[in-house]
Amino acid sequence: MTVLVIGEALVDVVRRAGREPEPHAGGSPFNVAVGLARLDVATELAAQVGPDAYGDLLCSHLAGSDVVLERLDPTPEHTSTAEATIAEDGGATYVFDLTWDPAALPDPAAFDAIHVGSLGTALEPGASLVAELVISADALGIPVSYDPNVRLAVERDPAVWQRVFAAIAPYASILKMSDEDAAVLFPGEAPADLVRRLAADRGIVAITCGGDGAHIAAGRHHASVPPADVRVVDTIGAGDSFMAAMLAWCATYDWPGADELDGTELTDLAMYASSAAAITCSRPGADPPRTRDLTP
Q1: Per-residue pLDDT at 284 exceeds 80
Q2: Which residue has the higher pLDDT, 131 or 12?
Q3: I need a surface site. Which of 69, 78, 88, 193 has the fewest CB within 10 A?
Q4: pLDDT the model gives residue 235
C-alpha cells in the first residue's frame, strides 16, 4: 500500500529570540509524508525541490524517513523557504518564499490513497493540476485526504481559501483542519458544530483546537478528546503529524468508510493522532514520531 502526497516542500528557517536561525525541513505536505513513512506507511512525495543546499537538506530528510521523492519539473532555481518566528508560547508565524508551478503530476491510479493540502492546493498554476488529480482519484475510488492548512501570510484573501475548500473537499473522504483554518473557512461556526455538519457529507472529519483538544466525526458519530499532556517546545508540524497519524490509522484498517466507524473507534483514532501531534510539539521543528514512539 502506497500513499501519494502532493504539495510544497520547503525549509523552515526558525528564528527564536537570542538564537541563531535554525533551518529545518518542512512544508505541510512534506511533513505529512515524513510522518506517514515514520508510521510504517509506504509514502511517495511529489514536490518541487531546488538544486541547492536547502534542497539537499530536504532530500536527506526524506531519505532518512524512507520517503520516495518524485521531483516535479520544472526544477526551481532555489528551494522554497518559510521563515518561522517562534513566540514565547511556542506558536509560530511565517513569511514564505516559494515556487509551485509543476508541469505535471503523477498518475493517481498508481497509488492506494492520495493526500493534498495547504499551499499546494491554493497557489496557481499548480493548484489547478492538484484539483484535477483529486477529482480523477475520487472517480477511480481512491481515498483522498485533504488538510486546507490555511496560510494567510501567502494568500491573504480568505475567499480564495474558501473557494479552494469548496472545490476539493467534496472529493475528500478524510478531512482535517485546525480551529484557525475553520475560523477562516467558516467564520463564526463552533468547531464541535462544524465537524458534525461536515461529517454528514464528507466522511471522516477532524478539527484540532490546540490546547482545547480535538473533535472528530464520521456519519452520525462524534467524539472529542483532550490535549495530551506535554511540554511544548514549539508547534511547528503538529497539525501535520495529526494528519499523518490519522492516515496511518486509516491505512491500518484498510481505509474504512464513515459508516464503518463508531464512537469508540473515532475516539481511538483521535487519541492516536493527538499523541503524534503532542510528541511533535515536544521537539524543535517538524519532527514527527515513529511507530515505536507511539507504542506503549
Answers
A1: no
A2: 131
A3: 88
A4: 75
